[in-house]
């Protein structure tokens, strides 16, 4: 249209297109701009070193705190009796005489028979606890009935009951029925102590197993007991193994009730070590006691180190829902 006025923006745009390098007129030819060089990439972010150092320091403190008593027990066990009170932190004046003194029965220290008693008490307690615990855990994990959660709470609450409160009533009861000094007086209380842990661990594991496995066995004609025995029980082997080890270790280390309910024929190893006699009534055989403690502890440590993966897998089984 005649008389149409251009806007200032249009004039500025045409002037920019008609200029060449340096602002001179380029006959309407646009000159490409020089590409910019990419900026250098920032340096990789380095993780701070202090959290790692703090973690390793914490692990070292825990290891020293937990293993220092055991280390000193082993050192004294291999040290000559005359150097029992030597404070050198590494092995010196080594001898095996202390182990011979611990196994010697001439002074009344029936250490080998005490080991047999501990094996009997621990083995029977573990087997009975597993038999009761696996069926109880199956009922709590796979069945619905009234009072289920109340029963679970009572079982877990029993684990928090202080054992020292049971010493007097159990001593009175076992004394009235003539059980003092018998194996059953040591086995039955231990069963009640390890059952809550057994039931809790197995219930958590069985609850995590898929229901479809049991339902498939039932569809194929298996009864509930057959499905439990042939399908669920083999799958629960890691949890059973873990529970058995923990129950046995707990029974093996129990001292308080054993010191009250046992006699010389049924005395477990923890009580036998505490009653070690020296060459006379005024001498406490610390070196022989340390040697006996080493003989009792090292097999348990080796067993835990060998089966630590199974123990961890059994404890963590059922902790994460799929």
Structure description:
The protein has 322 residues and is mainly alpha-helical. It is 64% helix and 0% strand. It has helices at 8-18, 50-77, 97-103, 111-142, 148-159, 167-176, 183-208, 211-219, 224-235, 237-253, 256-261, 269-274, 286-306, 308-316. The radius of gyration is 37 Å and the shape is globular. 21% of the residues are buried.
Note the topology.
Elements: H1 8-18, H2 50-77, H3 97-103, H4 111-142, H5 148-159, H6 167-176, H7 183-208, H8 211-219, H9 224-235, H10 237-253, H11 256-261, H12 269-274, H13 286-306, H14 308-316
Mean pLDDT: 81
DSSP helix count? 14
Q: Multimeric state of these chains?
A: single chain
Q: What share of residues are in beta strands?
A: under 5%
Shape annotation: globular
Number of strands: 0
The major sheet is characterized as: none
Taking Cα atoms only, what radius of gyration do you get, to the nearest Å?
37 Å
By secondary-structure content and strand pairing, the structural class works out as mainly alpha
**Secondary-structure element pattern, one letter each:** HHHHHHHHHHHHHH
Contiguous runs where pLDDT drops below 50 for at least 5 residues: 1-5, 10-28
Question: Termini separation (Å)?
Answer: 76 Å
Percent of residues in helices comes to 55-70%
Quick structural summary:
The chain is 64% helix and 0% strand.
Q: Notable features of this structure?
A:
single chain; 322 residues; mainly alpha; 64% helix; disordered N terminus
């Amino acid at each position: 249209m005649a008389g149409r006025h251009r806007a200032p923006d249009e004039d500025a745009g045409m002037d920019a297109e008609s200029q060449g390098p340096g602002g001179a007129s380029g006959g309407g030819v646009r000159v490409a701009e020089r590409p910019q060089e990419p900026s250098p990439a920032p340096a990789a972010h380095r993780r701070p070193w202090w959290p790692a150092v703090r973690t390793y320091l914490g692990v070292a403190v825990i290891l020293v705190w937990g293993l220092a008593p055991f280390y000193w027990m082993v050192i004294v066990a291999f040290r000559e009796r005359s150097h029992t009170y030597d404070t050198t932190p590494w092995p010196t004046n080594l001898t095996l005489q202390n182990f011979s003194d611990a196994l010697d029965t001439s002074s009344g220290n029936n250490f080998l028979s005490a080991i047999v008693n501990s094996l009997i008490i621990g083995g029977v307690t573990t087997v009975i606890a597993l038999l009761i615990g696996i069926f109880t855990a199956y009922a709590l994990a796979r069945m619905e009935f009234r009072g289920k959660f109340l029963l679970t709470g009572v079982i877990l609450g029993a684990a928090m009951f202080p054992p020292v409160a049971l010493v007097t009533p159990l001593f009175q009861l076992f004394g009235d029925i003539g059980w003092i000094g018998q194996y059953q007086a040591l086995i039955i209380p231990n069963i009640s102590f390890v059952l809550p842990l057994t039931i809790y661990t197995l219930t958590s594991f069985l609850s995590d197993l898929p229901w479809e496995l049991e339902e498939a066995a039932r569809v194929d004609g298996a009864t509930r007991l057959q499905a439990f025995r042939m399908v669920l029980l083999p799958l629960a082997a890691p949890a059973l193994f873990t529970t058995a080890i923990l129950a046995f270790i707990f029974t093996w280390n129990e001292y308080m009730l054993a010191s009250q309910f046992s006699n010389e024929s049924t005395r477990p190893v923890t009580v036998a070590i505490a009653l070690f006699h020296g060459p006379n009534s005024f001498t406490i055989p610390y070196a022989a006691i340390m040697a006996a403690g080493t003989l009792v502890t090292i097999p348990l440590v080796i067993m835990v180190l060998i089966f630590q993966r199974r123990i961890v897998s059994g404890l963590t089984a059922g902790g994460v829902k799929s």
